[in-house]
Design goal:
single chain, 197 residues, mainly alpha, 5 helices, 81% helix, rod-shaped
């Protein structure tokens, strides 16, 4: 990008020099007074030197300005790309840290907030799942005691409901299919209730 930008600046400078100097260049080779040709050639050389120096200075300043600009813009983009890559691997530990003066601060903060929210939801689901597995283990050990089993089943339902509340906070790509699948699963549960025996 920087090289293309520099080539663009050089092209603009060349077009400017050609536009400004073309009348003097034509006067040099035009038939006419020798003094007029001499004056046009001298003016042509002076203007060419000064315009070339000015164009070179402008090109160098513009090049360094462009390098700084792209560094402040592309640096955050690379950082965001790496963080999104980690998110796609289900790793929410990499935050986006920007340097002073970088662009895309709002976008980086939104991605950080999104990762924090996802991490909190997944953490809650993991805790509830661990507790649910512990309760299942206890329930298996109390086999045959109907009152205790019923109490454990109510606890399972409450834990499953807490997991469902967390999972319902997510909107999935194919949400209509997922809702249909959930409805069918709930229908199957109602049709085949758990028996204590």
């Amino acid at each position: 990008m920087a090289i293309v930008h520099l080539a663009y600046i050089i092209l603009i400078a060349a077009a400017l020099i050609l536009t400004v100097l073309s009348p003097f260049y034509i006067d040099i080779f035009k038939a006419g007074d020798l003094w007029e040709k001499h004056f046009s050639a001298k003016l042509f050389i002076i203007l060419l030197e000064r315009l070339s120096i000015a164009s070179l200075i402008i090109a160098v300043i513009s090049f360094f300005h462009f390098i700084i600009f792209t560094h402040k813009f592309c640096g955050p983009l690379v950082n965001i790309r790496r963080t999104i890559g980690r998110i796609s691997e289900r790793d929410f530990t990499r935050k986006i840290y920007l340097r002073k003066g970088d662009f895309l601060v709002t976008e980086a903060q939104q991605i950080n907030d999104m990762m924090q929210a996802l991490s909190n939801s997944v953490e809650t689901i993991k805790k509830e799942n661990t507790l649910l597995l512990d309760d299942l283990e206890k329930s298996i050990q109390t086999y045959g005691k109907q009152a205790e089993i019923d109490a454990e089943l109510k606890g399972f339902r409450d834990r499953a409901h807490r997991c469902r509340v967390q999972l319902d906070n997510f909107q999935l790509i194919d949400d209509s299919t997922n809702k249909a699948g959930i409805g069918q699963a709930q229908k199957l549960v109602r049709e085949n209730p758990l028996s204590a025996n």
